[in-house]
Amino acid sequence: MNELRERVEDLLDNQIRNWELVRTNTYALASLKTRYLYIRDFPVILQFNPERIRSSAAKTDTASLQARPCFFCHRPEEQYGIDYNDAFDILVNPYPISSGHLTIPLKWHEDQQILPYYEDMLWLAHDLQDYAVFYNGPKCGASAPDHMHFQAMELGNLPIEMNYKKASKGIVWEGRNTVLYVLYDFMASAFLLISSDLREADYAFKQLYAQLEIKEGDSEPMMNVVTWKDEDNWKDEDNWISCIFPRKELRPSCFYAEGDANILISPATVEMAGLFITPLEKDFDKVTSEDLETILREVSISEEEKNEIVRKMIQSSSRK
C-alpha cells in the first residue's frame, strides 16, 4: 500500500468515526439487499440502496442547478479531504454505493468535462491502487454536472472488471503499448482501451473522443468512463484498463413511465459497468434481466452508430 492509499484509509476511518452521516450510511451497506442477474450471459448486480435516491432522481437541468448552491463548493463542516496534485480533493462520499466510495472534485468550480482531465484519471487509477476511477458525463449520471469531478470505489465491486475479459473484441486502433478495442455483443455499446503507456493511452482516448458526436447545445459527447489498473494478460504488464460507454440518452423511457411500468433507474457509470442501483424496493423486487438490457440499450448509442465510429477511427488511422 502506497502513501496515498494509506492516507485514504485514514480519511475513511476518520470520517466514519466523526461524521454521523458517513458512519450511518457506511454501516448500512452491510444490510443492503442485492440480486444477481445476467445480461447476454454477462453477470450483473442489482442493489437496493434507498440513500441513493438523491442521485437517481437528481434534477440536473440548468434552472435546477442555478437554484441550488454547488455542493462541492459548499461542503458540510464535517467533510474534509486529501489534496491531490494541487488540482483535486479526495473526499469520502457520504452516500456510498460500496465501502471506500470516494468523490474527487476539482478544486475550482468548472463544468464537468473529461477531455482535459482524462490523463488525471489515469494517474488517479495508478496512485489509488486497487481502485476503479469513474466519470459520469454531464448528461450521463452526474448529479453535479456544474462541477468537474470523478468518483472511485475499490476494485471488486463492478462486474465490468471481469466481464470485459470474455467479451468479443475487434481492434480499432493500435499503438506501441496501447490497443483500443470495440466490444461486440456486449451488455452495452462500449470501447475498451488497454495500455501500459499513460501518454499513449491519453492520445488513443482523444482519437476516440474526436469521432464521437456532440449534440447541439452540449459541451462534450455523452459518455461514461471507468478506468483501473490491472495485470491484464496483454503483454503480461501492469496496464490501464478503460471502458468507454458512448451514450445517446440521459434516462430510459421506464424512468418517465407511470404506474407499474415505472422503474427508477437512472444509468450512470456504475450501471453501465454492471452494478445497477435502485432506490425503490418495488423496483428491486420486480426488475428483470430483460428490463436491465432494455435500459442499457435505450441510453446507449446503437450498433449502427458504434460501427460508424469504428469506421471513422480506422479511416482516420489509415491516413496517418
UniProtKB/TrEMBL annotation:
Stretches of the chain forming a coiled coil according to its record: none
Name by which UniProt lists this protein: DUF4922 domain-containing protein
Domain DUF4922: 11-153
Any matching Pfam family: DUF4922
Domain called GDPGP1-like C-terminal: residue spans: 261-315
Domain of life: Bacteria
SUPFAM superfamilies in alphabetical order: HIT-like (SSF54197)
